[in-house]
Amino acid sequence: MSVQRAFWEHRTYPGDLSQLRQVRQDLATDLAGFPDDAVQTLVLCASELFANACKYTASGQENGQVLRTLCLRRGRLLRLGFTDDGGSGRVPQIPTERTATEWDEAEGQRGLLMVQELSTAWGYSLTCPWADLGTSTWALIPLPDGTTPPPRLKPYIFTR
């Protein structure tokens, strides 16, 4: 019988874009045995969510950190999350106040659109709503129909 729910040990990274390569490598390692398309989609979403955590929060400052969470839900949905250190007072959102020309010329803020298109759902929650102590963003990536989790998968996976 395959595992319907699994939790990977949380990973913490320095809040620096130079860590993006490590974030990607860790995801590929943690998800070995899962379908390549799902892993690649998750890695692409992770790149955007991690970059936002570094760029728009205190995580990108000296000693800032970003926490990664990963779990399998109902045996068919991978849930990826990143929690930042807070500090910006901003919440993740897709900009809506742009003309078509402004969207065509925009260099930034397209990442959440990509996450929205690649995931079943995405969202955020404030770690501590009464203080700016961080924001958790997440995305749900479905496994292809008929996929079963790797046989070695346990309900709780230690990553290090």
From TrEMBL:
Give the protein name, as stated in the record: Anti-sigma regulatory factor (Ser/Thr protein kinase)
UniProtKB keywords: Kinase, Serine/threonine-protein kinase, Transferase
Return the PANTHER family for the record.
Answer: ANTI-SIGMA-F FACTOR RSBW (PTHR35526:SF3), ANTI-SIGMA-F FACTOR RSBW-RELATED (PTHR35526)
**What GO annotations for molecular function exist for this entry?**
protein serine/threonine kinase activity
Which superkingdom heads the taxonomic lineage of this protein's source?
Answer: Bacteria
Can the keyword Kinase be found in this entry's annotation? Answer: yes
**Organism name:** Nocardiopsis algeriensis
The major lineage groups are: Bacteria, Bacillati, Actinomycetota, Actinomycetes, Streptosporangiales
- The residues covered by the Histidine kinase/HSP90-like ATPase domain are 16-122
InterPro entries per the record? Anti-sigma-factor_SerPK, HATPase_C_sf, HATPase_dom
